[in-house]
Design goal:
6 copies of one chain form a homohexamer.
Chain A lengths: L5 H12 L10 H5 L2 H14 L6 H6 L3 H16 L6 H14 L3 H13 L4 H24 L11
Helix pairs in contact in A: 3-5, 6-7
């Protein structure tokens, strides 16, 4: 509609901005050249048995200490066997990511949940619980309901 | 420390304010006197096989239509059998309530999860996943990481 | 700047990712083929007196029970006449959606508000209230101000 | 009251902690002694035609510049006549405060709304809209629904 | 995969929607024609010693009173010298914007922080603190830990 | 006002509930009896050069693995020297905790910041930045402002 001017330019360039991170995403070549980062990427690939390393790790690569600590935590919390099954953990992860409005995390963990066998019916029930909880959270907060003594830890 | 003045009064009365809701909490006698509200309370007691009705419903009683619709949804989403087990649903509920910082809901649904068999080990793993997700949500948002094409729905 | 490699690919494909949902969006043909979903879509079109059905419902179509319950609630809460006028309800809806950082909902309900007569001046005052509330919320929380006894429900 | 141990002491004192702010709440005597703070308090009392000044302003009194700017904004946004009526503004304020989980603001603005005539029926409808919006926000975010082109500003 | 139909159209147009604001973005020509808006833009350019005026102000231009008040506050809070250095203020700003999931603000203030000298190491430490705080916030809320009396303001 | 009945009981007991956590808070005696937990508590006391161990760690003690990992991260992120000074880190921590509405974390880290020298003037400027950011976050989200191309990482 408009052929020139800052307004038009802004909107055109904005079309590109959703590919912008606030830090560089590391290429495989850049990863190869940094032994500390490469060691984490090698472990991600070996642990997941896949060559694909998603953008989250490519952005964290700018901060090797943070990269190492975050991957160590993810491995310990999400991958090591425990008392909650892996799919349940992914659903909890998506629930948190949804309320925090983290588009990246909703996408990556919904994909992970599907890879771990999430069915459409389970996804539907998950969505219903997240919606129901959001609704009653709003009601309880707007009404400032006092906690019942019956809920005390024994 | 202080014997008089508004400051002191404010702090004393504030000690009471956490028992304040922004609407009246209905007593059993008040519930008895309102057939529409009573019908919901009767169904809550029958469904849960318990005489205890927590404050959430006593606050919603001010709004019979909202009370009816909310209880119908809770019953359908949380109580009717489906493909997710009841404990998993409670964990998703607590995860949402935690991120929404709803103290009432965290308390009531942690109590509900324990009643459904949540062990300390499971609670610990749940907490670890919620903490991990919160951490990576913050990182992904601060870094504005673009979603990988590999996460697209097939 | 780069002609090949995962980094470049990731950023190109990311350009597409904002059209990705985490579930399929149903086409009209798919809706036609499912009587349960079709019944809801027919009611949406009849109620709104418009052929346009927005993506929200096309995504919920994957979960017929959730679709039915959500549409029934929206119809009851937002469309049935009550004591708050329709435009006021839309403003409350946008306020909630803004704080929850739900881009989809901010867009859809701002469009709905304009369709119901929201003027630029009203939008400006709405924005000022939302901004003011966000500011004082942050101050009250950072200062952990105790609630005054004077605010108790009579 | 107690015989020994940090744990027990902590829990007893915690019963008091909800009267703690993270900054001093100014008494009337302290306000009197500071001309800059006193001028704002005088204007609050004159504008509201009431001697009661709530804790929010008593906490901001520690920061005279912030106190002045915040009161000036509140006066301009919430009190000066405009195109939205005062009750509608309060409902938007409570909606924002609810999603931000600001207990103080939910209490103070629900009290303000009642003072401006909010009826129980209106409060019920308000709660229903806030709950509905929270629910659909969660669904739209969990599903990452792409915005329809039809919602574009004309 | 699909050549026609609403589904396809929706997804194509959605590719454009991330350039959509919910209000018009003012061009330089439009700004020139409105003395009140122009005065703010002139002051932004003079204060920042740059011709570039970002989209935030072009959207606020629809509401001159809000534009004036917001710019006056930004100038007072972020630009006037005080006891916190400008880079620290930007880091606080990005932290708030991250938790509020405001993509625009994360981008604009990360760019501003870099312009004020933020190094990659500082950015990494900032990210680590934001992630750590998010994690412990979730733990403290899920555990509903009572505040220690030792934290009371002296 | 009322001498008996569930309503009254609920409100009385609610007065106690703010001392309730959703898990046991460990006493010093309980910590002594568990070598794994005791090792962490010993390190907290040695690192901080203080006998006081706050409730956060007493609640995490129920989950030794989570306790160890969280303390290790806190020590690395908040205590080890880096490029951001300790007070700046605390301010970022409080900013995150405020937006997440974590009362416990706001209290504990405001106390920590004061212990590290935070002055009233600095606190006032910090509050002003957090309030300003919250306000503009709301405006940018409600307006869905597209990111300027100028903010791209170089």
């Amino acid at each position: 509609m408009k052929l020139a001017g800052i307004h038009f330019a802004a909107r055109i360039t904005a079309g590109r901005n959703h590919t912008m991170a606030t830090a560089k995403l590391w290429t495989d070549a850049e990863v190869e050249a940094n032994p500390r980062v490469r060691a984490v990427f090698d472990d991600i690939r070996a642990t997941r048995k896949s060559d694909f390393v998603n953008n989250f790790w490519r952005a964290l690569a700018n901060q090797p200490a943070l990269l190492e600590r975050t991957w160590a935590s993810i491995k310990s919390v999400m991958i090591e066997p425990g008392t909650l099954d892996p799919l349940t953990k992914e659903l909890i992860y998506i629930a948190v990511s949804t309320v925090n409005s983290c588009a990246y995390c909703v996408h990556s963990h919904t994909a992970a949940a599907r890879a771990k066998g999430l069915t459409d019916d389970q996804h539907g029930e998950f969505l219903a619980v997240v919606a129901m909880a959001s609704e009653t959270n709003a009601l309880a907060t707007a009404l400032q309901i006092p906690v019942d003594a019956e809920f005390a830890v024994q």
